Amino acid sequence: MHARAADDHRDAAIHAVAADRYDRAGDRYTLTAYELLSGHGGSHAAFDPEGGTALGAPLCSLALASVCYRLAGTPDRARARAQSGLALATEHRDHVLTAREERAACAEFAGDFHHLLGDRERATGAYDRAGEGYEAADLGNPAGFTARGLLEPGTRFLVHLSRPDDLTWDEIHGSDPERALSTRLRFKSARLASLLAARFDAGVLMTPRGSTEYGTDRFDCPACGSSDVNYVAGAVFCLRCDTPVRDGPRQG
Ligand SMILES: [Zn+2]
């Protein structure tokens, strides 16, 4: 039941994004984060020292909330969400988590929130600190760490921002798995500010990519005529322009 609460808020956020109701999307992404931080996502709650891997999803929900409030024309709320994400990431880095790689990942998130606050210099400093932490952790499988619960939501955040271009994992992490984490940090240093600026300039965030189907003969987008579709949040959206092409099956 509790897992549903977080999922329901996330699905509602995605539907609000599709409808360009960014105020509502910001609220729902915020509530997703609060549910997850309370341990209502079927995982660890915040402040659980064993819960490092669970922190990524709520931090990314706060980052998405910040993006949505900015698009809604409420920059003060956008800053508030970024500041609360920054505070959480910093607190977990300094007081909750003990594994070097998890503390480094918190520093990386701090960099992302600094970007959301428009401070590239502090973002670069946070990414440098993260890079030192990853190096000191001496992970046997750096590429594998990017697929775990702490960093994987951060990858999805980048891919979401890049839609409809849809960055790939390789574009973010490079082709050398040993250098995946340092390449990821360099990518963020170089590109996150412009990915955010592109969203804010366009005034649009698209729905995240779920499972997709190309050239389907079952759906035609009423807005642009595309038959490429994105299945996400229990519904079907045009992969090209995000128009709902059909309500999904009701989740009971
Ligand atoms: Zn369309």
Search tags:
single chain; about 250 residues; mainly alpha; Serine Threonine Protein Phosphatase 5, Tetratricopeptide repeat; 2 domains; four-stranded antiparallel sheet; 10 helices; 4 strands; about 60% helix; disordered C terminus; binds zinc ion
Structure commentary:
The protein is mostly helical. The chain folds into two domains: 2-202, Serine Threonine Protein Phosphatase 5, Tetratricopeptide repeat, CATH 1.25.40; 211-246, no CATH class. Helices cover 60% and strands 6% of the residues. The protein is built from ten helices and four strands. A four-stranded antiparallel beta sheet has the order 1-2-3-4. A hairpin with a 5-residue loop joins β3 (235-238) and β4 (244-246). α2 packs antiparallel against α3, α4 (75-96) packs antiparallel against α5 (100-116) and α5 (100-116) packs antiparallel against α6. The longest helix is centred in the last third of the chain and has 23 residues, at 180-202. The chain is globular, with a radius of gyration of 18 Å. Mean pLDDT is 93; it is low at 248-252. It binds zinc ion.
Structural class: mainly alpha
Poorly predicted sequence stretches spanning 5 or more consecutive residues = 248-252
Indicate the proportion of strand residues: 5-15%
CATH-scheme architecture of the largest domain: Alpha Horseshoe
What order do the SSEs take from the amino end to the carboxyl end, as H and E?
Answer: HHHHHHHHHHEEEE
Q: What is the C-level CATH assignment of the largest domain? A: Mainly Alpha
The number of helical elements comes to 10
Taking the alpha carbons of the first and last residues, their distance comes to: 12 Å
**Quaternary structure state of the chains depicted:** single chain
What average pLDDT do the residues reach?
Answer: 93
Order of strands in the sheet with the most strands?
A: 1-2-3-4
What small ligands are held by the chains? zinc ion
For this structure, the CATH topology of the largest domain is Serine Threonine Protein Phosphatase 5, Tetratricopeptide repeat
Largest sheet: 4 strands, antiparallel
